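As a warm-up, study this chain.
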Amino acid sequence: MRHNCPVCFEYLFDSVRPTAVLPCGHTIHSDCLKEMERHRQLACPTCLRSYADLAPVWRRVDEEVAATPMPPEYAAWVVSLLCNDCGGRGAVRFHVLGHKCGACGSYNTRRLDIDRGDPVPTRAGEEGVAVGGGEGGGGE
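Now compare it with the structure written out below.
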């Protein structure tokens, strides 16, 4: 509570407005949280972990990914990722619609190869890249 609201930047400790504690432990004004939800922003603005049950959304993304095959020139690409929800890391096949965490099934992920400055994802089988699940949970 001794920090600013991540949305309006008002100091929470002195605030008379009601606050909410997200499942990740970060605090936010209740009305700021409602405004985020109104705009369908369902991840903590501080750590990016989902605070709502997004399993139905992930199932819909699974359906869209299955219905949208990648062109042959991209089919072998593999990207490294970090899951914002469980902290898992892994390598998965590249897809323009999203990258699914192998540990928790979330699409709330970010590519690590972009952070390293790699110009393009790695092709499957190069440099010993294994495609599949992540290393598992463990928060940061």
